[in-house]
Every structure is written in C-alpha cells, then in structure tokens.
Amino acid sequence: MSSKLLRGTFILTLGTFISKFLGLFYVIPFFALVGEEGTALYNYAYIPYTIFISIATGGIPASVSKFISKYNAIEEYEVGRKLFKTGLLLMGITGIISFLILYAAAPSLAGTVITDPAFLAHKDDVTTVIRAVSFALIIIPLMSIIRGYFQGHQSMEPTAISQVIEQIVRIVFVLVGAYAVLHLLNGSLVTAVSVSVFAAFIGGLGGLVVLLWYWYKKKPEYDALLLNDKRTVDISVKEIYKEILLYSIPFVLVGIANPLFQFIDQLTFNKTMVAIGYKFKDAEYAFSILNFQAQKLVIIPVSLATAFSLTLVPAVTRSFTEQDQQGLNRQLNQTFQVLMYLTLPATLGLSLLAEPFYTVFYAADALGTEVLQAYAPIAILFALYAVTAAILQGIDAQKFNILSLLVGILIKLSLNIPLIKLMETKGAILATALGYGAAILINLFVIKAFSKYRYRLVFRRGMLIVIFTVIMYVVTMLVYRLLSMFLSPEVKWEALVMIIICAAVGAGIYFYLGLKTKLVNFLFGSRVDRILAKLRIKV
Length: 539
Fold this sequence. Notes:
By secondary structure, the protein is mainly α. It has a domain at 1-235. 86% of the residues lie in helices and 0% in strands. The protein is globular. The two termini are 32 Å apart.
C-alpha cells in the first residue's frame, strides 16, 4: 500500500472517529436541555431519517471511489469525470425525491409509533419533527458523490475535514437552537427538537462549503489529468451506474443494519409495552433510554475497535486478489484479534461502570443503568458484524451480506414482541443480540468457505484475551466497590472520578498483561516497542 494511501486511510479514519466522538459528547448538554421526552422525539425522527439517508447515499462514497480508482489506474480519467457530472444531477434528484417521500410519509410513520388514543396530539409532534429532519435529505446525497470523487483520487482529506466541520456546525446549531427556543423565546419542546433535527441540514451546508472549497482548490490538478486520458474505453452512463449499483449495495446493507434494528424497536416497542400494562409515557421513556441514551454510549467501543480493524481490510482484499493464502490468513488473524482485544474489555468495562457512566452523561437513573448494563456487551456483536461484512466485500463474497442481514432482521422481527412481553426492555436487547448473532455466524461461515480460512489461532488467542478480560473485570469490580464506599455513582463529579480511577486501573492491568505476554506486539507490530521506548517504559 502506498504511503499516500496509508496517509489517506489514517486521515479518513481519524476524521470519522472525531466526528463520532463529537456526536457522542454533545448528548450531555442536549439531554440536559430537552430531557427524556425530547430525546424520544429526536429519536423518532432520526431513525427513519438514518434509514433514508443510508439507502440514498450509504454506498455512494465507497462505490464511486472504487469506480474512479479503477479507471484512473488505466488512465481513463474522462470516465470518472463523466460519472461525477451525471452523478451530481442524479444525487440532486435522488435527494429531492427522498425528501418528498419522507416529508409525505411523516404522518404515517408517526402513526406507527403513537397508537394510544390519549396521545393523538403527540402524533402531530412526531410528524413535525420528522418533517424538520427530512430537509437534510436534499443536500446530503450531493455531498456523498463529491466525497466519493475525492476518495477515488486518493484524496481523503476533503472527506475527513468536511465530516468534522459538518458535525461541529450541526452540534452548535442543535445546542444553540434548542437553548434559544426554550430559554430565550419561551418556545415549546417540539419546536426545540424540530430545530435540533433541522441542524442536520445546516451541518450539511457547512460540510458542502468545505467540499466546494476543496474542489476549487483541486480542480486544476484533476483537469490536468484529463489531458493524459487514453480515451480507449467507451462506457455508457447506463453501464456506469450498473457498475456503481453493484458496488454500492453491500455498503448500503452494512450501513443500514443498525438503523433497521432500531426501526423495528420503534415500530413494536411502545405498542408491546402498553399491551403488557405500561402507560404510554413510561413506554416512551424506556424507548428513549434504549434507542438514544444507551445506544449513544454503546457505540463508543464499537467506533474505536471497528476503525482499527477496518484499516486492515484493504490488505485482506489485496491478499485475496493475489491468491496469497498465507498473507490472507495473517491479515484475517490480525483483524479478528485486534477487534476482540479492543472491544471485549471496553464493552464489559462499560457494563460494569454503567451507573456512573449513565450519571455523567445524563442523570442518575435506575432503568438507564439496568438497560446500559445489559446493552453494553452487545457492542461486541455490532463491531463483529461490521468487520465480517467488510471482509466479505474484500473476498468478493458481498452478496452473502444480503442473506445474513435478512436472516438477522427476520429473527429480530419474529422475536422482538414475544421477548419484550417476557423480559420488557431487556427483551428488545436480546432480540437484537440474537439477530446480529445469526448474521455474524453466517458471515463467519462464508468467510471460511470462500477464503479457506481456519479460526484455530483466533480461538486460542481469543481464549487468552478472555482470560485477561476476566482478570481486568474482577480487579476493576473490586476497585469500584471500594470506591463506592466513599463516592456515590449518583453524583456527577463523584461518578466521573470513579470512572477515571476504575478505567485507569482496568486499562493498566489489561495492557500490562498484553505487553508481558507479547500479545500486544503480535497484534500491533514493532510500533509498540517504538512507543514504549519513547515513553521509556520497560515491561
């Protein structure tokens, strides 16, 4: 892999991580402003919006990037420019159509959520909020194809910077807008949340300005490439989009998986909870905790581990294409082990410290703590699904992503209502775990069948990682219980102190064990020794 591509991959990974990091921590002031009812309204709008945006743009940057890279490699630069010009028009039309569909469907979507006759006025509130977020669909598809064009030229900086700027602008508008409506204009909660979700459109404008600036800056460079075009390939617009569609479907499926699982909860959770005797307000409160508050925290370890693991996938693709079985086995071993090494302790640590974490981010809440404790370990499945789906793309078996996702969704649909009736909120979590678990098993089987890969080393090293995690968990639990004698996890600053001390102790023990057994060296290579040398640490 070239140094330019390595640098680009690092920049893109860093930009994505910063964007997700910002998207996590804004929930602290946002929750303080709008509370559980506001976050439930916010979630009702954002889940269908995420599905629409995933379908409209989910695979576009990656598929356009892959297409342009392919034809640039054979010096057919005009093909990529043709795609870009027609793509801007197509994405503009797609964005407007998506906006109109979601805007028109808002009352129906609100009706699937608000079924209690006593809360019919609340249905209008949900409709208003969904319509407010739908405007973002006009602009986001345009951004996706511009990002894909830059990435196809191995220029990842525009995508990374625009993602960060988009997120910053969105978050500032969310918080300032909600505060202004509630505290300066004495407006309603519905108006405040509507302004907050409309921030997706404003953030999109900020990201688009960055992308247009980069286009102005780089256009002379890209125009110069056209002068060297070989002009030996004559490909129609129809053939271009047929190829793009084949590239994009697997990416869309990976991106849409989690929103679809959440949407199933949105359709069934409140109804089922009311059916077993809960008041609608209490059901909505539990739904907000499940699909907004807890979900935001669970994504932390997923983002970090998946970002590290997915940087290894291009090497998997290269080894498979070159039929380098030894190299492929090595890359798959490293990918799975890095994923386990980073995700397992993080998720179990989050589950152990669920009460102080929930207090710091939101407020002391018994149900919030209970849901987060049960939900946190599911992050392992989220990360494993994302990585196995990406590997299937790398070994040219992406069509099986369709099968695994459909099986997972079918299991979630079939079991969600009976499990909620049996276990309430934890039932929805278990249905998600079973759905993702089935999808992952299918992906792992396909990986083995198509790549002739064996999981022996991963299993052996995985057992070692499990042992280290158990040791870390036990020690951290003892420290947590000791701290609980002096500090309260229900007080924000005391909860934060508990998190810092427990995380430091747990991480210290875990990484010490990894360094002592040289497991970290096997996973991350010689860079570990260089970092330790710079820090003057001896193990």
